[in-house]
Design goal:
This protein is of the alpha/beta class and about 200 residues long. It has helices at about 1-15, 60-80, 85-90, 95-105, 180-195; strands at about 25-30, 45-55, 120-125, 135, 135-140, 155-160, 165-170. Strands 2-1-3-6-7 form a 5-stranded mixed β-sheet. Strands 4-5 form a two-stranded antiparallel sheet. A hairpin with a 2-residue loop joins β4 (about 135) and β5 (about 135-140). The chain is globular. The two termini are about 20 Å apart.
């Protein structure tokens, strides 16, 4: 539901600003593989799903169904490929080599010529359902923060705490000068879904 809401917000925002839309947008969703990572020593056990979602849909209800099917297919491919595929590839390639490649790519401005792999990021981290305390004070809310990726310009970071989902939205103001509109559009999406259930 969160991915669908973010996609609805991005597409609606772009349409409202008269920006051209491709047939699909790609959402990158980080996936924790901590429990499946076996004997790997590193603590950063994260893979990713890349979801190609149509920009044409008939309302929030249809979009939710589409995203559900797309995520199911992506999970199946991810499972067949092996959840540690990208992780293992990163472990094999020497960091010095990667640094050199990215340094050369940045200097040559090649990233300005190549379309981004994904358009936006949706991160969802489940947190504790119980109260957390520090020095006797209860943590009231969590505001997640996540970096924006080069080429996408917007990241939706969700974290749950005490059975409430909190959103941290980071957007490049040059690409999205009215970033606060995304929150309103996600709320519009959720309200429309609730009305469908009446």
């Amino acid at each position: 539901m969160l991915v669908a809401g973010c996609h609805f917000a991005v597409v609606t925002y772009l349409k409202s600003h008269d920006l051209a839309l491709p047939e699909n947008l790609v959402a990158m969703v980080p996936v924790s593989i901590h429990e499946k990572a076996g004997g790997i020593d590193s603590k950063n056990k994260v893979s990713a799903l890349f979801l190609r979602i149509p920009t044409a849909f008939n309302g929030p209800g249809e979009l939710l169904g589409l995203v559900h099917e797309i995520i199911d297919r992506a999970k199946a491919v991810h499972s067949d490929l092996g959840s540690l595929f990208f992780y293992n590839a990163a472990e094999v390639i020497p960091p010095v080599f990667l640094q050199t490649v990215f340094r050369l790519a940045t200097r040559s401005e090649i990233f300005d010529l190549v379309p981004p792999v994904f358009n936006y990021v949706v991160s969802n981290v489940p947190g504790p359902d119980i109260d957390l305390f520090l020095a006797g004070s209860r943590l009231e809310k969590v505001i997640p923060m996540a970096p924006i990726a080069d080429g996408s310009g917007i990241t939706f970071a969700f974290v749950s705490y005490r059975k409430v989902v909190h959103l941290g939205l980071v957007a490049d103001p040059k690409l999205f000068p009215n970033g606060a509109q995304f929150v309103k559009l996600i709320d519009e999406f959720l309200t429309a879904l609730l009305k469908l259930g009446d």
